[in-house]
Amino acid sequence: MVDQSEYGKNRLYLVDFIKLTLNPKLINPYEIRQLFLEKGLSSVQIARKLNVSKSTILSILHRLDVRVETQAGRINNPENYRVRNPPYGYRIQDGRLVLNKSEIRVCRLVVELIARREFTWSATARELAAKGYKNRNKSTKWDHSTVRNIFERWKNKL
Fold this sequence. Notes:
Arc Repressor Mutant, subunit A, two-stranded antiparallel ribbon, single chain, 4 strands
C-alpha cells in the first residue's frame, strides 16, 4: 500500500506488481538457412515468420557462414517478389508474380505491332491510345518508354 496525496487529500492506492519472465525460443538454425537460401525469403520475412528480431536471424546466418549481402535476383525472384510495382503483364498475388490476363493482351499487341508490323515505339503508343487500351493509371495515354519496356520484356516470350 502506498500513501499518495492528491489535490491535498490522502488516498490509498493498491499497486500490483506483475512478474515478468522471458521465454527463450528454440530456433533451428538449419531451418533458417533453408528459408533463406532455398525459399529465397529475406531476413526480415524470416524474422516475422518466427516472431524474432531481424538481428537474431542475421547472427544465426552469420554463424552458419551464409553470406547475407544482397544476392543477385533475390528481390526479383518470381516466387518471392518484393517490389511494389510488378512488370507490365504481371500482378502480385500472395507475394508471387502471376500473369495478368488483361495486361497480357496489351503485351501481345505491342509485340505484334513492333516486331511484325515494324511500328516505332511512339507509333505503337499512339495505336494503343487510338484503340482505347488503358494503362495502369486508367488512362489511354501511353508513353513510348512504357511501350519499349513492354516490348523488351515480352519480345521473345509471346
